[in-house]
Specification:
100 residues, mainly alpha, 5 helices, 58% helix, globular
Length: 100
């Protein structure tokens, strides 16, 4: 998390908000999520902002949760840069249901 530019207070808030972060595998969970966010066009600062805004993001499933929500935003007409800005500005979008 610090490699993304998160400072100690942001990391501490993320861990206090989601203590399960310690149980998540770096190789099979954290790194793929960070890379997936970067593949959306987010830079390190945007990824850090999203994670510090919603640490639970790191525990969400890419296929069943993250991708459908990004697709929903794209279906609304947002391009990649708009999706990246939306996620970094309001990561809580990933905590909402697109079904109702």
């Amino acid at each position: 998390l610090e490699d993304l530019g998160m400072d100690n207070s942001q990391v501490a808030r993320a861990i206090s908000s989601l203590p399960q972060l310690f149980a998540l595998s770096i190789e099979s969970n954290l790194t793929p999520k960070v890379q997936w966010l970067k593949d959306l066009g987010m830079d390190d600062t945007q990824v850090a902002r999203a994670i510090s805004g919603l640490p639970q993001l790191l525990g969400l499933n890419i296929e069943s949760n993250l991708k459908p929500k990004v697709q929903w935003l794209e279906d609304l007409g947002m391009d990649n840069s708009q999706v990246a800005r939306a996620i970094s500005s309001l990561p809580q979008l990933f905590s909402l249901s697109i079904e109702s």
